[in-house]
Every structure is written in C-alpha cells, then in structure tokens.
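Budget justification, computational time. The allocation requested in the original proposal was used primarily to generate structure tokens for proteins on the priority list. As evidence of use, we reproduce two of the resulting records. The first is shown immediately below.
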Amino acid sequence: MQRITVTIDGKSYTVVADEDDNNVVRAAELVDKSIAETKQNTRLSSVDGAVLAALNIADMYFKAQRSSENLRAQIKSYAEECAGLRSEITRLKKNKGE
C-alpha cells in the first residue's frame, strides 16, 4: 500500500492504493479535468460540479464498455470465420490429394 497525494478541484486528497501511482494520478487528473470542464462558464458549486463530472465519467465508461463488447463480438465472429476457412482449406487439400 502506498499513499499518493493528488489535487482535485483545488483540494488535496491523500489516496491509499495498491495500484501503480501513475494510475491514481491519471484518474485524479481525469476527475479534475472533468469537474473543471463541467464548472466552466457556470456557477456550479464544487459538489454539483463533482456530481455532473461523475455522470460524464460514468457515461464515458458505459460507452467504452459497449464499444469493448462490440469489438469482442466482432473478434469472435472473425475467429469463427477464420476457423471455418481453415477447415475448408484442409478439406480442399484432402480432396486435391485424392
């Protein structure tokens, strides 16, 4: 366990994590940036900005998850097609040798 100090929305937080400190710093930077963008040109409180930033991050997460699932399905489809083509090649080689 390590302690990592990060700054989010102007406030310092000490995070205890098993993760690589780079992951924690990157996560804090994402949250800080999202809060800043959410509060930009508005008069949101820090809490409201944090809640809206959390919603934006959750939306990004779900979109990335959906995209990942689509890619997995596409890879599975390609793998099945490849296996079918390999079987066809093997069958054709056997027939040619007869």
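The second record produced under the same allocation is shown here.
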Amino acid sequence: MDVLDNKCPACGAKIIFNPKNQKWDCEYCGSKFSLEEMKRYENASSSKSNTKKNTNSKKKLEGLDVYTCKNCGAEVMADETTTATSCLYCGSTTILKDKIDDGIAPSKLIPFKNVKEDAISAFKGLYKGRPLMPKFFNNPKNIEKITGVYIPFWTYDLKVSGQIDFTATDVKTWSDYSYRYTKTDKFLCKRNSRMSFNRVLVDGSSRFDDDLMDSIEPFNFKELVEYNHAYLSGFLAEKYDVDSNKAMERANKRAMNTAISTTKATVIHQSKVVTNNNLHIAKVNDDYILLPVWMVNIKYKDKTYTFAMNGQTGEIVGNIPLDIRKTIIVSILLFIITTVLAFFIIRGVT
C-alpha cells in the first residue's frame, strides 16, 4: 500500500481526517483531500511507512507515538497530529510518550463517520428526563473529555457443525366436573446442524467491558477500508492487549450460543432442554481490525462509568447512577404527597 503523509500536501501543515466529508481537511490553508489524492501525493518531508512486514508476513506497526499511563498501564497510539495529555481510562496525567516498536498492525478499519459534536449531543440525550442523575455528570469538563478512539477488535470466520439433542416437553391440562387432568408428553429431538459465522467480533482490549462493546454493535463491514495511519489523524487508537488465541475463546462461545439458540428454535414444543451437545467449531479465518468509538470515562464516588458511542452508526450506551440524596428527597416528597391525597380522599368519602 502507498505511504500516506499526515501533512497537508499544499502547505505542509498538520492535516486531520474529517468524518463528515470523509476527507483530510487542512485547518491552516483550507485544502481538502480525498484518499485517492492523498495517495497521489508523496511528500518528501516524510518517507516513513506506517507498517512493515515481519517474518510471519504480518504487518508490524511503526512510525506512531504510544502513550503509556503510569497509573493504570493503559497504552494508546496516535500520530503526530494528536497528543494525549491524560489517560483515557483513569484520567491520570502521569503518561509517558514513546515510539511504537512492536505490535501487529491491523489489516483494516472503519473510519469515523460521526464527529465530536454528534457524540456530545448523544451523551446529553442520555441524561434527558433523568432528574435523579448526579449533577456531576452534567459538568462540561466531563462532556469535553469525550474522545474518538479506534478500538482493536479481532474478527473470526467460523463454522459450526455436528449433532445436538434436546429433551422436549409438552404439557396439556383440562378438567371436567370431578377432576383436573394433566398430560405430559416427552420427546427426544435430534438435530444435525451446520452453520457459518462471518466476522464474529471480540474486542482486543481488556479495559473495555465486553457487554458494553457488544451493545454498540452492529457495525457495517461494507465500509471497511485498508488500514493506513492517515485515518488516525485527530484520533487515538488503543493498542490491543488480548491476543488472537485468547479472544477466540469468546468468539467460539458467541458462535456456540447462537448455534444452540438457532437450532433450538427448530424444535416445535413447549419446552426443550439440551441433553447432548456434540457441536464442533472450526476457525476458517481471523483478522485484526480497528473500529471507531466515541467514549468517555467518568469517575464518580470511586467508581468509573464508561459511555461509548458507535463512531459509525451513532448507537450509544452507558449506565448513569442515581444520586442517593436526590432519590431520598424525591421518595420523601412522594410519600408526603401520597399521604396527603389519601387523607383528603378518605375525608371526602366519610
């Protein structure tokens, strides 16, 4: 793949990827460049490549900065257009900057389609109609910490095949003038299954809650593009810390659960229980990709709350705690109001 430079071909200033027009915009001279135009320009100011081949034919990262948090150990990557001044996860400012000297480069990524303003608007929408939310979450300083991050994901193409047995039960009840009857029928149901799963996702970061990452799916994989560090302009990227073999355990579990559920749906009885599972999973292919996520971590009363928005579709998830003081006050007020209303209703009746 051609080497891309993250400097403006027109004036040499730093250039940033704009999710809205899917182009690289220069804030200094106002020039805009498409991917094809960026490939056409090979600035003499930079001859570095963002990847190189290793002995296993995998591409290796280089030419990027890596920021390591001394407090929690998190590592994020960025190019020269983006600087990390505090830890994305714990908020600590004790971070060290170095150059990438190891790590496999992703093969593909989905570029951001939403800008920071979209993420801020979605975050504000989360707490609309939630009067019991702590005021701390409305603090503009927290909202401004929303950051665009490319999250590392492993994807797997899997095949599931084999036999699975169910014990199915149907219960029928009826009654006459004297008795109530119950009839229970049991069946042994055997199913041979063969299924293919494409791009089963597992995040490659141990710092992200798996359920949280599952909640912002799906992503449109038709918009995957070949990886190039130019897409990182203006964003951070987390360095994966869960390898492919470890992540595959969860991919297998997700595929197996879906296979069992899908097969179970073919058994037309009231209840069914798996009695023998002889399904086997075979990996066809795996891949390492980056997916766009807007996120912010807010620490409240010694607990960290993570809010994440799919940088492609705009799907947002996050848990907002209740303000205990507000909850108590509202509960007392509701009790008083209910008691007063009940008193007047009783007096009116008597």
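A brief technical remark on that second record: The two ends are 87 Å apart (CA to CA).
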